[in-house]
Amino acid sequence: MTTPHFHLGDEVRDALSRGRPVVALESTIIAHGFPYPDNLEMALAVEEEVRRAGAVPATVAVLDGCLRVGLSRAELERVARSPDLPKASIRDLPVLCALGRSAATTVASTAQVAAWAGIDVFVTGGIGGVHRGWEQTLDISADLPALARLSLVVVSAGAKTVLDMAATLEYLETHGVTVLGYGTEVFPGFYLRSTGLPVDARIDSPAEAAAVLRARRALGLPGAVLVANPIPPDDALDEGEFNGWLAQAEADLAAEGVKGKAVTPFLLARLHALSGGRTVAANRALVMNNARLGAAIARCLVGLSA
Amino acid sequence: MTTPHFHLGDEVRDALSRGRPVVALESTIIAHGFPYPDNLEMALAVEEEVRRAGAVPATVAVLDGCLRVGLSRAELERVARSPDLPKASIRDLPVLCALGRSAATTVASTAQVAAWAGIDVFVTGGIGGVHRGWEQTLDISADLPALARLSLVVVSAGAKTVLDMAATLEYLETHGVTVLGYGTEVFPGFYLRSTGLPVDARIDSPAEAAAVLRARRALGLPGAVLVANPIPPDDALDEGEFNGWLAQAEADLAAEGVKGKAVTPFLLARLHALSGGRTVAANRALVMNNARLGAAIARCLVGLSA
Amino acid sequence: MTTPHFHLGDEVRDALSRGRPVVALESTIIAHGFPYPDNLEMALAVEEEVRRAGAVPATVAVLDGCLRVGLSRAELERVARSPDLPKASIRDLPVLCALGRSAATTVASTAQVAAWAGIDVFVTGGIGGVHRGWEQTLDISADLPALARLSLVVVSAGAKTVLDMAATLEYLETHGVTVLGYGTEVFPGFYLRSTGLPVDARIDSPAEAAAVLRARRALGLPGAVLVANPIPPDDALDEGEFNGWLAQAEADLAAEGVKGKAVTPFLLARLHALSGGRTVAANRALVMNNARLGAAIARCLVGLSA
Ligand SMILES: [Mn+2]
Ligand SMILES: [Mn+2]
Ligand SMILES: [Mn+2]
């Protein structure tokens, strides 16, 4: 797709036109995941990790009504310095384009823009999913229907930590997303290596992930291949300790009466404080780990060695 | 699409072939919304309001197995005099076509037929949505997946009044429908100007609605732009008063043991009686208001001034 | 679709290329529905019933990474002798193809493979649906979105017996699947002739089912026509008796603490034992009955007399 509202960075355009491996990255984690300048440093480090693993990073954001794939250093800095930048899901993209606005992209909108750009691999920390309490609210992330519809590999360390994990996996099963465990039979738990819930199938190499996406496309099947990549053992949090922090954070949430969209940021900030920063360190480690795996899968998809 | 089962009225065919603005209208409100002859009078008045605002009305119905877009006076009269006419959702259309039957069209089926006809704007009173009690019944209107799939602007004063409004908005968010508030940041409440729930974005002109649909299409994104247009202040009901009628109507519902598809008509009839006809007057006012806005958006979409 | 991973049996290829009627059949019932050799005997009997009714049977399975449509006697035998063969839904197909594995196909994956092969009719016993307890688990079969998306006639005696039937019908309504009762206004209950829940429309001939699918396609509407065919009166179980067995089976389930994917097989095995084999006899009878109707519809779709 080329419209006036769509722009590929030079490095990304060059890579795509030459059939070189490209890995898409979201910008919500930059704008909202960490404070400045830690967020900029991390964005640059993740891009560097993708390059070191032999692929080209393509961070996605919407700036002044233009869908940008592959940000310059100045654009990354702009996103990192904009804590008020709204978070845009897929349905917001036409509004931003039509009205000339800016936003950070979520898992759903990054995957959508990546698919439009012809990028086959998208690396994130954790996908959105079915929210706890969905049986009262019907609050289900737009990330899930996006994964059911878009044809690409998404690498994550599981789903964001404050979701109903079992219901999230049921949704993915109902809607036909292939969920592969990388070196594991169980779906990973973001900061933890396991949720105890089974994945659809286990793979043990980047080439297998690439082969499954290729088969999906050869069959003409819409929808994503979700590669669930557990946090490295040395970076994983202790389950008992983490559950203690989470219980405390949820008690604080109830005590302060936080509701709606403020819930997730509140819980993450509390987890950060209660863990003395260990949740943030783990988050960084798992994103770097996913960046390496995503680059390797992207290489396999264009016929290079992982 | 042209098949033996599809027929455009002369005025509609002429307008579409000349690139003139057209606004689709549903027929369920005619067959089931009001008694004869009030329903016929209102159908004619809404069509007239669309014309006065510079667009061509295209009321949709299925008559003797034929999908009709743009009804003659005699056809409108036939629908208005048929309280037993079934209500057809999208999945019923092939049955009606195959078996030569007649039906009034819902939001979902009107939007579908409009999209097939190449009509870009559909005006209704309120869309269907997630029914209260969905957490036991899974009762969710086929209008919602239709909005997620069809590419057009739908103008409504919110959703039908007896729904779980928060869950309806969650569904629209999950499935990527762009929800724009016309001159408001909050989703309107049909008879009331506000539900207190936020919309995706606010717009302040018909041209902005048209630009968002155009951007959606330029991006190749399926799905509708829902323009939520609050009832005019002078026509809105008083919230406290309305909630009193609604509570009474629901008590009567429970007392009489009404269930299933009979619930909505029962509640609407009780609201009519309890309010001394003020719910019906408000309903008429909001539909006329939507007709004017829909015509203006349709004009913008074909390059005319609103 | 032709890829290295797709293979039509000779009889099926010949029939499709000559425009002769073909009926797809699933393999999960062979691998998991009955013990060997009863399952092989039944698979052969169902195929024979399709042939006797003037159509060509096309049993679907995945063998060594190849999607096979129309199994040889040796392949049927292999499936029948493999109680450990996994059950593959649509999202598993690319994994099986990519990694060269084998599996039996469910309703969803059989319908998908049939659609790819250009087969217009699929016969099964009962479709999957919304599981009881979905309001806690969100457990909804991938069969339902498959029916909402794939264009073919599916003949079944209702849905599998251990589901939330009302919620299953709500899902089908929301997502636009046309549900036709064959000679009935009520959705059948697998072993029983009625669930007491209404269907979308009643038909009384195979030609009407064929006409509805043709209309769906002429309209460009995605999604299936589900023909709900009640078990023949002489084969139906007694409702009171059946409900007693079911209550006992559920009590045993609770007592033994069975959970998750083991629930359905456990219940079916208990029903078999408690009924002295009468549930199995009824299951066989309804599949044979569906095979006859499916063949008649397939004949109508290619312009032959039913
Ligand atoms: Mn949400
Ligand atoms: Mn409903
Ligand atoms: Mn399930």
From TrEMBL, chains A, B, C:
Binding partners and assembly: Homotrimer.
The record's free-text note on cofactor binding: Binds 1 Mn(2+) ion per subunit.
Residues of the signal peptide: none
Family: Belongs to the pseudouridine-5'-phosphate glycosidase family.
Domain of life, per lineage: Bacteria
Protein's UniProt keywords contain Lyase: yes
Enzyme class of the recorded protein, top EC level: lyase
Keywords for the protein's UniProt record, in alphabetical order: Glycosidase, Hydrolase, Lyase, Manganese, Metal-binding
Record-annotated active site: E26, K160
UniProt: substrate binding residues: K87, V107, S141, A142, D143
Functional description taken from the UniProt entry: Catalyzes the reversible cleavage of pseudouridine 5'-phosphate (PsiMP) to ribose 5-phosphate and uracil. Functions biologically in the cleavage direction, as part of a pseudouridine degradation pathway.
Section covered of the full-length record: 1 to 306 of 410
Keyword Manganese: yes
Amino-acid positions noted as binding Mn(2+) in the UniProt annotation, renumbered to this chain: D139
Gene name of the encoded protein: psuG
Catalytic activity line of the entry: D-ribose 5-phosphate + uracil = psi-UMP + H2O
EC number: 4.2.1.70
Gene Ontology biological-process entries: nucleobase catabolic process
GO molecular function: hydrolase activity, acting on glycosyl bonds; metal ion binding; pseudouridylate synthase activity
Annotated Gene Ontology cellular component terms: cytoplasm
Cofactor(s), names only, from the UniProt record: Mn(2+)
Protein name (database record): Pseudouridine-5'-phosphate glycosidase
